[in-house]
Amino acid sequence: MDVETFEKSRLYQLDKSAFSFWSGLYSEVEGTVILLCGGIPFLWSVSGEISEYAGFGPEYEISQSLVFLLLATLFSAVTGLPWSLYNTFVIEEKHGFNQQTLGFFFKDAIKKFIVTQCILLPVTALLLYIIKIGGDYFFIYAWLFTLVVSLVLVTIYADYIAPLFDKFIPLPEGELKQQIEAMAKNIDFPLTKVYVVEGSKRSSHSNAYFYGFFKNKRIVLFDTLLEDYSALNKERPEDAGSESQVAGENGEGTETPAKAKSKKQGCKNEEVLAVLGHELGHWKLGHTIKNIVISQMNSFLCFFLFAVLIGRKELFTAFGFYNTQPTLIGLLIIFQFIFSPYNEVLSFCLTVLSRRFEFQADAFAKDLGKAQDLYSALIKLNKDNLGFPVSDWLFSMWHYSHPPLLERLQALKDSKQD
Protein backbone atom coordinates (compact mmCIF):
# COMPACT_ATOMS: atom_id res chain seq x y z
CA MET A 1 0.00 0.00 0.00
CA ASP A 2 1.22 3.47 -0.80
CA VAL A 3 1.35 5.94 2.09
CA GLU A 4 -1.71 7.87 0.91
CA THR A 5 -3.96 4.79 0.65
CA PHE A 6 -2.70 3.55 4.01
CA GLU A 7 -3.59 6.88 5.63
CA LYS A 8 -7.04 6.94 4.00
CA SER A 9 -7.77 3.39 5.18
CA ARG A 10 -6.57 4.27 8.70
CA LEU A 11 -8.92 7.28 8.91
CA TYR A 12 -11.81 5.22 7.49
CA GLN A 13 -11.23 2.52 10.09
CA LEU A 14 -11.13 5.12 12.88
CA ASP A 15 -14.42 6.62 11.72
CA LYS A 16 -16.07 3.19 11.49
CA SER A 17 -14.77 2.18 14.92
CA ALA A 18 -16.02 5.37 16.54
CA PHE A 19 -19.41 4.97 14.87
CA SER A 20 -19.63 1.34 15.97
CA PHE A 21 -18.82 2.32 19.56
CA TRP A 22 -21.38 5.12 19.84
CA SER A 23 -24.15 3.30 18.00
CA GLY A 24 -23.53 0.19 20.13
CA LEU A 25 -23.56 2.27 23.31
CA TYR A 26 -26.84 3.89 22.28
CA SER A 27 -28.34 0.48 21.57
CA GLU A 28 -27.36 -0.77 25.04
CA VAL A 29 -28.72 2.36 26.75
CA GLU A 30 -31.96 2.21 24.76
CA GLY A 31 -32.48 -1.47 25.60
CA THR A 32 -31.77 -0.87 29.29
CA VAL A 33 -34.18 2.09 29.48
CA ILE A 34 -36.91 0.05 27.77
CA LEU A 35 -36.47 -2.76 30.31
CA LEU A 36 -36.31 -0.51 33.38
CA CYS A 37 -39.27 1.65 32.31
CA GLY A 38 -41.50 -1.28 31.35
CA GLY A 39 -41.44 -0.57 27.64
CA ILE A 40 -42.26 -4.14 26.61
CA PRO A 41 -45.45 -4.57 28.71
CA PHE A 42 -46.49 -1.02 27.75
CA LEU A 43 -46.18 -1.80 24.03
CA TRP A 44 -48.06 -5.07 24.58
CA SER A 45 -50.87 -3.13 26.26
CA VAL A 46 -51.03 -0.63 23.40
CA SER A 47 -51.10 -3.53 20.93
CA GLY A 48 -54.06 -5.01 22.81
CA GLU A 49 -55.95 -1.73 22.61
CA ILE A 50 -55.34 -1.44 18.88
CA SER A 51 -56.28 -5.08 18.32
CA GLU A 52 -59.45 -4.67 20.37
CA TYR A 53 -60.35 -1.50 18.46
CA ALA A 54 -60.09 -3.57 15.26
CA GLY A 55 -62.56 -6.08 16.70
CA PHE A 56 -60.14 -8.66 18.11
CA GLY A 57 -60.51 -9.24 21.84
CA PRO A 58 -57.93 -10.60 24.33
CA GLU A 59 -58.66 -14.16 23.18
CA TYR A 60 -57.06 -13.30 19.81
CA GLU A 61 -53.50 -13.44 21.11
CA ILE A 62 -51.93 -13.98 17.68
CA SER A 63 -53.57 -10.81 16.31
CA GLN A 64 -52.28 -8.80 19.27
CA SER A 65 -48.85 -10.37 18.80
CA LEU A 66 -48.71 -9.25 15.17
CA VAL A 67 -49.66 -5.68 16.13
CA PHE A 68 -46.94 -5.78 18.81
CA LEU A 69 -44.39 -7.04 16.29
CA LEU A 70 -45.34 -4.37 13.76
CA LEU A 71 -45.04 -1.57 16.34
CA ALA A 72 -41.75 -2.95 17.70
CA THR A 73 -40.13 -3.17 14.26
CA LEU A 74 -41.46 0.29 13.37
CA PHE A 75 -39.93 1.70 16.57
CA SER A 76 -36.64 -0.02 15.78
CA ALA A 77 -36.65 1.35 12.23
CA VAL A 78 -37.35 4.91 13.38
CA THR A 79 -34.74 4.94 16.17
CA GLY A 80 -32.17 3.34 13.86
CA LEU A 81 -32.79 5.78 11.01
CA PRO A 82 -30.53 8.62 12.25
CA TRP A 83 -27.66 6.19 12.70
CA SER A 84 -28.16 4.74 9.24
CA LEU A 85 -28.32 8.23 7.73
CA TYR A 86 -25.12 9.26 9.49
CA ASN A 87 -23.30 6.10 8.42
CA THR A 88 -24.36 6.48 4.78
CA PHE A 89 -24.24 10.24 4.19
CA VAL A 90 -21.44 11.22 6.55
CA ILE A 91 -18.98 8.34 6.97
CA GLU A 92 -19.45 6.50 3.65
CA GLU A 93 -19.85 9.80 1.78
CA LYS A 94 -16.75 11.28 3.41
CA HIS A 95 -14.63 8.35 2.28
CA GLY A 96 -16.06 8.18 -1.25
CA PHE A 97 -18.16 5.00 -1.01
CA ASN A 98 -21.74 6.27 -0.93
CA GLN A 99 -23.50 6.44 -4.29
CA GLN A 100 -27.05 6.98 -3.01
CA THR A 101 -29.17 10.10 -3.07
CA LEU A 102 -31.37 10.98 -0.11
CA GLY A 103 -34.47 10.09 -2.12
CA PHE A 104 -33.07 6.71 -3.11
CA PHE A 105 -32.13 6.03 0.53
CA PHE A 106 -35.64 6.67 1.88
CA LYS A 107 -37.30 4.81 -0.97
CA ASP A 108 -35.03 1.85 -0.28
CA ALA A 109 -35.69 1.99 3.48
CA ILE A 110 -39.48 2.06 3.01
CA LYS A 111 -39.32 -0.80 0.54
CA LYS A 112 -37.18 -2.89 2.92
CA PHE A 113 -39.62 -2.27 5.76
CA ILE A 114 -42.63 -3.31 3.68
CA VAL A 115 -40.95 -6.45 2.30
CA THR A 116 -39.78 -7.40 5.79
CA GLN A 117 -43.31 -7.10 7.19
CA CYS A 118 -44.77 -9.11 4.30
CA ILE A 119 -42.47 -11.99 5.27
CA LEU A 120 -42.19 -11.53 9.05
CA LEU A 121 -45.86 -11.20 9.99
CA PRO A 122 -47.25 -14.29 8.20
CA VAL A 123 -44.30 -16.44 9.30
CA THR A 124 -44.69 -15.30 12.92
CA ALA A 125 -48.45 -15.93 12.84
CA LEU A 126 -47.92 -19.49 11.60
CA LEU A 127 -45.14 -20.12 14.13
CA LEU A 128 -47.32 -18.93 17.04
CA TYR A 129 -50.20 -21.08 15.77
CA ILE A 130 -47.94 -24.15 15.58
CA ILE A 131 -46.70 -23.54 19.14
CA LYS A 132 -50.31 -23.16 20.34
CA ILE A 133 -51.60 -26.41 18.81
CA GLY A 134 -48.39 -28.46 18.87
CA GLY A 135 -48.90 -30.08 22.25
CA ASP A 136 -45.96 -31.44 24.24
CA TYR A 137 -43.77 -31.78 21.15
CA PHE A 138 -44.49 -28.34 19.66
CA PHE A 139 -40.76 -27.50 19.67
CA ILE A 140 -40.14 -30.20 17.03
CA TYR A 141 -42.87 -28.85 14.75
CA ALA A 142 -41.73 -25.24 15.33
CA TRP A 143 -38.15 -26.19 14.45
CA LEU A 144 -39.23 -28.02 11.29
CA PHE A 145 -41.34 -25.01 10.27
CA THR A 146 -38.45 -22.55 10.68
CA LEU A 147 -36.18 -24.96 8.78
CA VAL A 148 -38.57 -25.03 5.82
CA VAL A 149 -39.00 -21.25 5.91
CA SER A 150 -35.24 -20.63 5.96
CA LEU A 151 -34.65 -23.00 3.02
CA VAL A 152 -37.46 -21.38 1.03
CA LEU A 153 -36.12 -17.89 1.70
CA VAL A 154 -32.60 -18.90 0.66
CA THR A 155 -34.04 -20.37 -2.54
CA ILE A 156 -36.21 -17.40 -3.55
CA TYR A 157 -34.12 -14.51 -2.20
CA ALA A 158 -31.87 -13.87 -5.20
CA ASP A 159 -34.62 -14.51 -7.78
CA TYR A 160 -37.56 -12.68 -6.23
CA ILE A 161 -36.49 -10.53 -3.26
CA ALA A 162 -33.08 -9.10 -4.16
CA PRO A 163 -34.27 -7.86 -7.62
CA LEU A 164 -36.75 -5.61 -5.79
CA PHE A 165 -33.77 -3.57 -4.62
CA ASP A 166 -31.05 -4.07 -7.24
CA LYS A 167 -30.90 -4.74 -10.96
CA PHE A 168 -29.56 -8.18 -11.94
CA ILE A 169 -28.39 -8.75 -15.51
CA PRO A 170 -26.84 -11.88 -17.05
CA LEU A 171 -23.08 -11.67 -17.46
CA PRO A 172 -22.55 -10.91 -21.18
CA GLU A 173 -21.04 -13.57 -23.39
CA GLY A 174 -17.29 -13.28 -23.53
CA GLU A 175 -13.98 -14.50 -22.20
CA LEU A 176 -14.83 -14.02 -18.51
CA LYS A 177 -18.07 -15.96 -18.72
CA GLN A 178 -16.37 -18.79 -20.62
CA GLN A 179 -13.59 -18.96 -18.03
CA ILE A 180 -16.11 -19.03 -15.15
CA GLU A 181 -18.09 -21.82 -16.80
CA ALA A 182 -14.89 -23.79 -17.47
CA MET A 183 -13.75 -23.47 -13.85
CA ALA A 184 -17.20 -24.50 -12.57
CA LYS A 185 -17.17 -27.55 -14.85
CA ASN A 186 -13.68 -28.44 -13.71
CA ILE A 187 -14.78 -28.77 -10.06
CA ASP A 188 -18.24 -30.21 -10.90
CA PHE A 189 -20.07 -27.08 -9.70
CA PRO A 190 -23.60 -27.26 -11.25
CA LEU A 191 -23.62 -23.68 -12.55
CA THR A 192 -26.74 -22.59 -14.44
CA LYS A 193 -26.44 -18.79 -14.64
CA VAL A 194 -24.01 -15.95 -13.90
CA TYR A 195 -25.42 -12.53 -12.96
CA VAL A 196 -23.96 -9.07 -12.51
CA VAL A 197 -25.73 -6.91 -9.93
CA GLU A 198 -25.54 -3.12 -10.17
CA GLY A 199 -24.21 -2.56 -6.69
CA SER A 200 -22.52 0.66 -7.80
CA LYS A 201 -25.79 2.62 -7.59
CA ARG A 202 -25.75 1.98 -3.84
CA SER A 203 -22.08 1.79 -2.85
CA SER A 204 -18.63 1.32 -4.35
CA HIS A 205 -17.92 -1.65 -2.04
CA SER A 206 -17.59 -4.96 -3.90
CA ASN A 207 -18.75 -8.53 -3.33
CA ALA A 208 -19.54 -11.91 -4.95
CA TYR A 209 -21.59 -14.90 -3.88
CA PHE A 210 -23.37 -18.02 -5.12
CA TYR A 211 -26.74 -19.46 -4.19
CA GLY A 212 -29.14 -22.27 -5.01
CA PHE A 213 -29.66 -25.89 -4.07
CA PHE A 214 -28.85 -29.17 -5.78
CA LYS A 215 -28.31 -28.82 -9.54
CA ASN A 216 -29.44 -25.18 -9.80
CA LYS A 217 -26.49 -23.05 -8.68
CA ARG A 218 -26.02 -19.44 -9.71
CA ILE A 219 -23.18 -16.96 -9.27
CA VAL A 220 -23.70 -13.26 -8.58
CA LEU A 221 -20.91 -10.73 -9.16
CA PHE A 222 -21.14 -7.10 -8.07
CA ASP A 223 -20.27 -4.76 -10.94
CA THR A 224 -17.86 -3.01 -8.57
CA LEU A 225 -15.83 -6.24 -8.45
CA LEU A 226 -15.32 -6.27 -12.22
CA GLU A 227 -12.83 -3.80 -13.66
CA ASP A 228 -14.38 -4.07 -17.12
CA TYR A 229 -18.00 -3.70 -15.95
CA SER A 230 -17.87 -1.27 -13.02
CA ALA A 231 -20.08 1.74 -13.66
CA LEU A 232 -17.70 3.76 -11.49
CA ASN A 233 -14.93 3.21 -14.04
CA LYS A 234 -17.24 4.14 -16.91
CA GLU A 235 -18.27 7.34 -15.14
CA ARG A 236 -14.70 8.51 -14.73
CA PRO A 237 -14.04 11.45 -17.09
CA GLU A 238 -11.28 10.46 -19.47
CA ASP A 239 -10.15 14.04 -19.92
CA ALA A 240 -10.05 14.86 -16.20
CA GLY A 241 -7.00 16.89 -15.31
CA SER A 242 -4.41 15.85 -12.78
CA GLU A 243 -5.77 18.41 -10.30
CA SER A 244 -9.21 16.81 -10.16
CA GLN A 245 -7.65 13.36 -9.90
CA VAL A 246 -5.58 14.40 -6.90
CA ALA A 247 -8.66 15.94 -5.29
CA GLY A 248 -10.48 12.64 -5.76
CA GLU A 249 -7.63 10.70 -4.21
CA ASN A 250 -7.50 12.99 -1.21
CA GLY A 251 -11.19 12.56 -0.56
CA GLU A 252 -11.79 16.27 -1.28
CA GLY A 253 -13.33 15.79 -4.69
CA THR A 254 -16.58 14.24 -3.51
CA GLU A 255 -18.63 17.07 -5.02
CA THR A 256 -17.65 16.09 -8.55
CA PRO A 257 -20.36 13.98 -10.25
CA ALA A 258 -18.11 11.02 -10.90
CA LYS A 259 -16.24 11.01 -7.59
CA ALA A 260 -13.23 10.12 -9.71
CA LYS A 261 -10.34 8.07 -8.44
CA SER A 262 -6.92 7.80 -10.03
CA LYS A 263 -7.07 4.03 -10.32
CA LYS A 264 -9.67 1.73 -11.76
CA GLN A 265 -12.18 0.07 -9.47
CA GLY A 266 -12.35 -3.73 -9.35
CA CYS A 267 -10.29 -6.71 -10.48
CA LYS A 268 -9.02 -8.07 -13.76
CA ASN A 269 -10.57 -11.25 -15.14
CA GLU A 270 -7.85 -13.50 -13.75
CA GLU A 271 -8.30 -11.99 -10.30
CA VAL A 272 -12.10 -12.33 -10.51
CA LEU A 273 -11.63 -16.02 -11.30
CA ALA A 274 -9.35 -16.37 -8.27
CA VAL A 275 -11.98 -14.75 -6.02
CA LEU A 276 -14.61 -17.10 -7.45
CA GLY A 277 -12.22 -20.02 -6.91
CA HIS A 278 -12.23 -19.06 -3.24
CA GLU A 279 -16.05 -18.79 -3.11
CA LEU A 280 -16.56 -22.09 -4.91
CA GLY A 281 -14.08 -23.64 -2.49
CA HIS A 282 -16.64 -23.03 0.26
CA TRP A 283 -19.09 -25.16 -1.74
CA LYS A 284 -16.63 -27.88 -2.71
CA LEU A 285 -15.36 -28.26 0.85
CA GLY A 286 -18.88 -28.47 2.24
CA HIS A 287 -18.69 -25.26 4.28
CA THR A 288 -22.20 -24.17 3.26
CA ILE A 289 -23.76 -27.48 4.32
CA LYS A 290 -21.78 -27.50 7.57
CA ASN A 291 -23.02 -24.00 8.42
CA ILE A 292 -26.62 -25.01 7.71
CA VAL A 293 -26.29 -28.12 9.90
CA ILE A 294 -24.75 -26.12 12.77
CA SER A 295 -27.44 -23.45 12.44
CA GLN A 296 -30.26 -25.99 12.52
CA MET A 297 -28.76 -27.91 15.45
CA ASN A 298 -28.60 -24.65 17.37
CA SER A 299 -32.16 -23.77 16.33
CA PHE A 300 -33.45 -27.13 17.57
CA LEU A 301 -31.61 -26.74 20.89
CA CYS A 302 -33.06 -23.25 21.37
CA PHE A 303 -36.63 -24.41 20.67
CA PHE A 304 -36.15 -27.33 23.07
CA LEU A 305 -34.92 -25.02 25.85
CA PHE A 306 -37.77 -22.65 25.04
CA ALA A 307 -40.22 -25.52 25.61
CA VAL A 308 -38.58 -26.18 28.99
CA LEU A 309 -38.65 -22.53 30.10
CA ILE A 310 -41.91 -21.19 28.62
CA GLY A 311 -44.00 -22.45 31.53
CA ARG A 312 -42.01 -20.55 34.18
CA LYS A 313 -44.19 -17.66 35.33
CA GLU A 314 -41.30 -15.90 37.10
CA LEU A 315 -39.69 -15.15 33.71
CA PHE A 316 -42.76 -13.20 32.61
CA THR A 317 -43.11 -11.52 36.02
CA ALA A 318 -39.51 -10.32 35.86
CA PHE A 319 -40.30 -8.46 32.63
CA GLY A 320 -43.54 -6.90 33.88
CA PHE A 321 -46.11 -9.48 32.76
CA TYR A 322 -47.93 -10.38 35.96
CA ASN A 323 -51.26 -11.67 34.67
CA THR A 324 -50.52 -12.98 31.16
CA GLN A 325 -47.90 -15.17 29.50
CA PRO A 326 -48.05 -14.35 25.76
CA THR A 327 -46.15 -16.80 23.56
CA LEU A 328 -44.49 -14.05 21.50
CA ILE A 329 -43.26 -12.33 24.65
CA GLY A 330 -41.92 -15.68 25.83
CA LEU A 331 -39.99 -16.04 22.59
CA LEU A 332 -38.61 -12.50 23.00
CA ILE A 333 -37.58 -12.97 26.63
CA ILE A 334 -35.98 -16.37 26.19
CA PHE A 335 -34.32 -15.97 22.79
CA GLN A 336 -33.14 -12.36 23.19
CA PHE A 337 -32.38 -12.08 26.90
CA ILE A 338 -32.04 -15.48 28.56
CA PHE A 339 -29.95 -16.89 25.72
CA SER A 340 -27.75 -13.79 25.29
CA PRO A 341 -24.67 -15.19 27.16
CA TYR A 342 -24.96 -18.45 25.22
CA ASN A 343 -25.33 -16.49 21.96
CA GLU A 344 -22.10 -14.59 22.66
CA VAL A 345 -20.16 -17.81 23.19
CA LEU A 346 -21.74 -19.40 20.11
CA SER A 347 -20.94 -16.32 18.03
CA PHE A 348 -17.27 -16.54 19.02
CA CYS A 349 -17.13 -20.25 18.17
CA LEU A 350 -18.71 -19.57 14.76
CA THR A 351 -16.20 -16.76 14.16
CA VAL A 352 -13.32 -19.15 14.84
CA LEU A 353 -14.87 -21.71 12.50
CA SER A 354 -15.48 -19.08 9.80
CA ARG A 355 -11.83 -18.01 9.86
CA ARG A 356 -10.78 -21.64 9.51
CA PHE A 357 -13.13 -22.02 6.53
CA GLU A 358 -11.65 -18.89 4.91
CA PHE A 359 -8.11 -20.28 5.09
CA GLN A 360 -9.36 -23.57 3.63
CA ALA A 361 -11.12 -21.77 0.76
CA ASP A 362 -7.94 -19.80 0.03
CA ALA A 363 -6.00 -23.07 -0.05
CA PHE A 364 -8.59 -24.51 -2.44
CA ALA A 365 -8.10 -21.56 -4.80
CA LYS A 366 -4.35 -22.15 -4.53
CA ASP A 367 -4.82 -25.80 -5.55
CA LEU A 368 -6.61 -24.51 -8.65
CA GLY A 369 -3.44 -22.58 -9.53
CA LYS A 370 -4.93 -19.22 -8.50
CA ALA A 371 -2.58 -18.34 -5.61
CA GLN A 372 -0.84 -15.45 -7.40
CA ASP A 373 -4.10 -13.98 -8.74
CA LEU A 374 -5.89 -14.33 -5.39
CA TYR A 375 -2.91 -12.69 -3.69
CA SER A 376 -3.16 -9.63 -5.94
CA ALA A 377 -6.98 -9.64 -5.83
CA LEU A 378 -7.05 -9.54 -2.02
CA ILE A 379 -4.67 -6.59 -2.02
CA LYS A 380 -6.64 -4.77 -4.70
CA LEU A 381 -10.01 -5.37 -3.01
CA ASN A 382 -8.53 -4.29 0.31
CA LYS A 383 -7.41 -1.01 -1.30
CA ASP A 384 -10.72 -0.49 -3.12
CA ASN A 385 -12.63 -0.97 0.14
CA LEU A 386 -10.06 0.95 2.24
CA GLY A 387 -9.53 -2.03 4.49
CA PHE A 388 -6.95 -1.33 7.20
CA PRO A 389 -4.34 -4.11 7.08
CA VAL A 390 -3.16 -3.87 10.71
CA SER A 391 -5.30 -5.70 13.29
CA ASP A 392 -4.93 -6.34 16.99
CA TRP A 393 -4.96 -10.11 17.32
CA LEU A 394 -7.39 -10.22 20.27
CA PHE A 395 -9.82 -7.78 18.68
CA SER A 396 -9.75 -9.52 15.32
CA MET A 397 -10.08 -12.97 16.94
CA TRP A 398 -13.34 -11.91 18.63
CA HIS A 399 -14.87 -9.67 15.95
CA TYR A 400 -13.59 -10.65 12.49
CA SER A 401 -15.26 -13.55 10.68
CA HIS A 402 -12.46 -13.34 8.06
CA PRO A 403 -8.76 -13.59 8.92
CA PRO A 404 -6.79 -10.31 8.74
CA LEU A 405 -5.39 -9.56 5.31
CA LEU A 406 -1.75 -10.03 6.29
CA GLU A 407 -2.42 -13.54 7.64
CA ARG A 408 -4.18 -14.55 4.42
CA LEU A 409 -1.41 -13.09 2.28
CA GLN A 410 1.25 -14.87 4.32
CA ALA A 411 -0.55 -18.20 3.87
CA LEU A 412 -0.81 -17.62 0.12
CA LYS A 413 2.78 -16.43 -0.07
CA ASP A 414 3.97 -19.64 1.58
CA SER A 415 1.80 -21.57 -0.88
CA LYS A 416 3.29 -19.73 -3.81
CA GLN A 417 6.81 -20.43 -2.61
CA ASP A 418 5.96 -24.10 -2.16
Automatic annotation (TrEMBL):
<keyword id="KW-0645">Protease</keyword>
<keyword id="KW-0378">Hydrolase</keyword>
<feature type="transmembrane region" description="Helical">
    <location>
        <begin position="328"/>
        <end position="353"/>
    </location>
</feature>
<dbReference type="GO" id="GO:0008233">
    <property type="term" value="F:peptidase activity"/>
</dbReference>
<dbReference type="InterPro" id="IPR027057">
    <property type="entry name" value="CAXX_Prtase_1"/>
</dbReference>
<keyword id="KW-0479">Metal-binding</keyword>
<keyword id="KW-0472">Membrane</keyword>
<feature type="domain" description="CAAX prenyl protease 1 N-terminal">
    <location>
        <begin position="2"/>
        <end position="167"/>
    </location>
</feature>
<protein>
    <recommendedName>
        <fullName>CAAX prenyl protease</fullName>
        <ecNumber>3.4.24.84</ecNumber>
    </recommendedName>
</protein>
<dbReference type="Pfam" id="PF01435">
    <property type="entry name" value="Peptidase_M48"/>
</dbReference>
<keyword id="KW-0812">Transmembrane</keyword>
<keyword id="KW-0862">Zinc</keyword>
<keyword id="KW-1133">Transmembrane helix</keyword>
<comment type="similarity">
    <text>Belongs to the peptidase M48A family.</text>
</comment>
<feature type="region of interest" description="Disordered">
    <location>
        <begin position="236"/>
        <end position="264"/>
    </location>
</feature>
<dbReference type="InterPro" id="IPR001915">
    <property type="entry name" value="Peptidase_M48"/>
</dbReference>
<comment type="function">
    <text>Proteolytically removes the C-terminal three residues of farnesylated proteins.</text>
</comment>
<keyword id="KW-0482">Metalloprotease</keyword>
<feature type="domain" description="Peptidase M48">
    <location>
        <begin position="170"/>
        <end position="414"/>
    </location>
</feature>
<dbReference type="InterPro" id="IPR032456">
    <property type="entry name" value="Peptidase_M48_N"/>
</dbReference>
<keyword id="KW-0256">Endoplasmic reticulum</keyword>
<dbReference type="Pfam" id="PF16491">
    <property type="entry name" value="Peptidase_M48_N"/>
</dbReference>
<dbReference type="GO" id="GO:0006508">
    <property type="term" value="P:proteolysis"/>
</dbReference>
<feature type="transmembrane region" description="Helical">
    <location>
        <begin position="66"/>
        <end position="86"/>
    </location>
</feature>
<feature type="transmembrane region" description="Helical">
    <location>
        <begin position="137"/>
        <end position="158"/>
    </location>
</feature>
<feature type="transmembrane region" description="Helical">
    <location>
        <begin position="300"/>
        <end position="322"/>
    </location>
</feature>
<feature type="transmembrane region" description="Helical">
    <location>
        <begin position="113"/>
        <end position="131"/>
    </location>
</feature>
